[in-house]
Amino acid sequence: MSLQRRMVAGGFWMATAASLVAALAILLFVTPNEESMGPIQKVFYIHLPMAINTFVACLVVFAASVGYLVQRQTWWDDLGVAAAKVAVLLATGVLATGMLWGKCAWGAWWSWTPRLTFSLMLWLLYVVYLMMRASVESPQRRAVVSAVYGVIAFLDVPLVWLSARLIPDPVHPASITLGEWSMKLTLGLWFVPVTLLTVGLIGWRYSLNRWQRQAVMDAEAADSPEPHGAARNLV
């Protein structure tokens, strides 16, 4: 990585850390407690941005999958798997914060409502995506199978979204009313660090995937009996 790119990356992560600290400070010391649920309601300000960014990561997997099926270029595959790993990480956070919030506010860790069931399915779909990749040895076949699966897995995203808004949930509310300006400010601020983390982690994993793929190609070229023995550039 060049010095300029290192400086840009360093600035990005510093901005991400600063926004995270600021959002956390406002959450703890400025945002008031919700009257009926108390302090546990503050989990909502983290839970919702993580849920939205989970959808964003899944959308990146979908776009990368379509891109690979159309163009058959390896960078699409590397982007897809990078976004899938971030989607699993975010979905895990969504489930964990949701269960904690539900237990403290309504006395139930889990209920098999459509909203929670589709959310769990989303997490499972992308966990299976990563497990499936590890089981396919051929890079070309792995990329094709992953791309087809990535398109199909995305179908659960609108199901999660619609179930949270159209199907009544006896345990969890359909929406949270943010009456005070500080509550709305807190929610808006938390979208900044969570979104930056999502973008940064996808970019970091993508760069690592490209570096690993190039390293494999260089190793194969070094072992090749061909006289030129140089690895081709990634496409």
Secondary structure elements and pairings:
Layout: H1 3-29, H2 44-71, H3 74-106, H4 114-135, H5 139-153, H6 156-166, H7 181-223
Keywords for this structure?
globular; 235 residues; 0% strand; 7 helices; mainly alpha; single chain
Structure explained in plain terms:
76% of the residues lie in helices and 0% in strands. It contains 7 helices and no strands. It has one domain (3-31, 38-214). The mean pLDDT is 89. The chain has 235 residues and is an all-alpha fold. Helix 2 (44-71) packs across helix 5 (139-153), helix 3 (74-106) packs antiparallel against helix 7 (181-223) and helix 4 packs antiparallel against helix 6. The protein is globular. The protein has helices spanning 3-29, 44-71, 74-106, 114-135, 139-153, 156-166, 181-223.
Please give the largest β-sheet: none
By secondary-structure content and strand pairing, the structural class works out as: mainly alpha
- The rough form would be described as globular
* Percent of sequence in beta strands: under 5%
Residue share in helix = over 70%
- Poorly predicted runs: none
What's the order of the H and E elements?
A: HHHHHHH
Rg to the nearest angstrom? 21 Å
